[in-house]
Amino acid sequence: MKTFTLEKGDVLITKDSETPDDIAVPAYVSQSLTNVICGYHLAHIKPVSIQSKYLFYAFISTQIASQFHISATGITRYGIGKSDIGNSLFLIPPIEEQEKIVEYLEQKTAEIKELKEKTLQQIEKLKEFKQILIAEAVTGKIKV
To answer: pLDDT value at position 54?
Structure first.
C-alpha cells in the first residue's frame, strides 16, 4: 500500500482517456496525503534522479506531451503503458540547472496567474459598469 500512497514530490499523469490529447496530463503532489492512493487510470511516478517539479513541467511541454499522444492506442478509450512512459525522450540537465529552470517557470507562472486574476477583475468591473449604464439609459438618467 505504501507504494501507491501519494507523497510530496510525486507526479501523476493520466494514462487512459477518451481522446489521445488527454493522455499524460500531469499533476504535481505538493503535500503528502495520508490514506490517499493513486487511482487505476493514473500513472504514479516517484522521481528519484530528477527534480520532481522539473519532471512535472517536462510533461506539460508540447514536445513530451506529443510523444504520448502519438503512442496512445485505442478506439473508444486511449491509453499508454509503462513502457511508453519509460521510453519517452526528453532532456535531463544537471539537478542545479533543473532547479533554476523550475524557479524560472514558477516565477513566470505566478506572474501569469496574477495578470489573469487582474484581467478577470477588470472584466467583472466592466460588466458591472455595463449593467449600470444600461440601467441608467433605460430609466432615463442619461441621454442616449
So the answer is: 97
DSSP secondary-structure letter at 29?
A: -
- One-letter-per-residue 3-state SS of 73-102: ECCCCEECCHHHHHCCCCCCCCHHHHHHHH
Shared domain for 64 and 114, answered yes or no, is: no
Contact present, 13 and 45 (Cβ < 8 Å): yes
Q: Are 72 and 48 in contact (CB under 8 A)?
A: no
pLDDT of residue 2: 66
pTM of the model: 0.81
| pLDDT (0 to 100) of residue 1 | 61
Domain that residue 143 falls in: 93-144
